[in-house]
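subagent[fold] <- orchestrator: predict structure for attached chain, return tokens only, no commentary.
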Amino acid sequence: MARFRERMLQQRCMIRKAEILPHDIGYLKLDFFPDLNVCGAEVKAAMASLNHAGAIIFDLRDNSGGFPDTVSLVASYLFDHPEYMYGPRGAPTVDSWTRSPVAGNMLADKPVYVLTSGSTWSGAEQFSYDLKMLKRATLVGETTRGGTHAGTFHRIDDHFGMGIPEERFINPYGKADWEGVGVQPDVKVKAAEAPGTAERLVEMKLENK
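subagent[fold] -> orchestrator:
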């Protein structure tokens, strides 16, 4: 845990960018949903820095997953009431709901765009999928990697082990999950083109509004 904490803090908790782009667009590039026990303050500060944006873009193209409670926390800023998000590892817990409303938050009614790629995986797919199914975000980019089933590594002897899927994501929005097939974007473009495409979509939406 000490090494993990040190590495996360050295990596700025995998928060690559949190900034306001032209046209009042908030942009957060997050490459991992880090443990809140280590990075809770950093995640909240990143979201607070975007509080006055007219719209927000989450860049998850390089996000490899992370902790379900952090997925729920970040999503909390996008609703004005607790929203059922589900968690991929068993029965619902308190982290299956967002922690909405967040005091002082102004993002609950702002347009949301999520950038995806073939490398977007696990917890990042959960974030993308749930927001898409709740009609709270528009996904822009490529189909995600397709990893949702939770499993455990079982050691056989000193040299061999076996990873076995033991739980299936039972999602509340459809009959299937995204295991092996990924999450489909709403606007399909190459990952490299996703930021520019999302910015143009935001600009058009804000102009029409």
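orchestrator: received. Logging for downstream: The mean pLDDT is 90. The CA atoms of residues 129 and 150 lie 16 Å apart.
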